[in-house]
Amino acid sequence: MTSMPLYQQIAVIAICAVVTIATRVVPFLIFKPDKPLPPYMEYLGKVLPGAVFGMIVVYCLRNTPVCKYPYGIPEIIGIVVTVAVHLYKKNMMISMVAGTIVYMISVQMIFI
Fold first, then answer.
1. Rounded to whole angstroms, how far apart are CA atoms 89 and 37?
2. Which terminus of the chain, N or C, has less C-beta within 10 A?
3. What is the signed CA dihedral for 104, 57, 48, 99, rounded to 10 degrees?
4. Pair 82, 46: CB distance under 8 Å
5. Three-state DSSP class for 5?
6. Burial 84-106 (b: 16+ CB within 10 A, else e)
7. Mean pLDDT of the chain
8. Is residue 15 part of a domain?
């Protein structure tokens, strides 16, 4: 397999950087701080975080083998820890990190 020449690598990195910065800047250009957000944008701001989180859960569990060992037990343990920590701490980042750590320990040390 051949790798890209240096100029192509630089071009790809530059394009990715410009697109990433643009996605952060454009909303501030479109929606001025002195004007209220349109109701549809407020609605999206309320429902999208939960929808994205649900989509991530479905994506992560789509190939879980439930008919052979370990029967999805590490995934269930990870989900239970994530939900429990989130209900206790009310912090999405802490709950995701805790659930991920417990899941990784489960699959690499317990359910091998």
1. 30
2. N
3. -30
4. no
5. coil
6. ebbeeeeeeeebbebbeebbeeb
7. 92
8. no
